[in-house]
Design goal:
By secondary structure, the chain is an alpha+beta fold. It contains one helix and seven strands, in the order αβββββββ. A seven-stranded antiparallel beta sheet has the order 1-2-3-4-5-6-7, covered by helices on one side.
């Protein structure tokens, strides 16, 4: 009888150890999955940032007009700049689609970010955008609505990857930067 109890006890302990090992393995898999998803989101964000930084630092470059901004909205912007340094001023526009742009994505909030140069065919420079917001400031540091007085632009960008979820949460990455275009001529201040 004592041997049967020893065998039964050993089987119970062995079963518990097996359950603990399964739990640890599942937890490690979830962590690895989320880490991979975060790396993908960070990679997507860094590609978008490279394009944004390149263009936004050129706002007003080789432009002789009084104001370099043609559209200033919280979710879109158009500005004049010689993007390709060919002595011809281009009109560069950034805007986001509505959520139908990524209708097949499981994330109901993600959108596409478009870049358009001179009214040509818009180019998608990012997907999974859940927030693209701009604020415009004058040389005193107050928010500005008059394009003639804008001296800096604050860009906020959030990307969520709709393909990866763990417990109904999308991995996300956030970026914010204020640009001070060097070629801005401020009127009236």
């Amino acid at each position: 009888m004592g041997t049967l109890l020893d065998v039964a006890g050993a089987l119970i302990v062995r079963g518990l150890m097996y359950l603990v090992m399964l739990s640890v393995t599942a937890s490690l898999n979830d962590t690895l999955y989320m880490k991979t998803a975060m790396n993908n989101v960070q990679g997507e964000l860094s590609i978008i940032i490279q394009t944004l930084e390149s263009d936004f630092q050129k706002i007003g470059y080789n432009d002789t007009t009084a104001t370099h901004f043609t559209t200033i909205k919280s979710d879109s912007i158009s500005f004049n700049a010689d993007i390709d340094n060919n002595d011809t001023v281009d009109i560069v526009t950034y805007y986001v689609s509505d959520t139908s742009g990524l209708a097949t994505s499981p994330n109901p909030l993600d959108k596409l970010l478009y870049r358009n140069v001179n009214g040509g065919v818009p180019m998608v420079i990012g997907a999974g955008i859940t927030q693209f917001q701009m604020k415009y400031f004058n040389n005193v540091g107050f928010e500005e609505t008059n394009p003639s007085f804008i001296t800096s632009v604050d860009v906020l960008l959030k990307v969520e990857h709709g393909s990866y979820t763990i417990k109904d949460k999308y991995p996300s990455a956030y970026w914010q930067r204020r640009f001070y275009p060097s070629k801005i001529n401020v009127q009236g201040y």
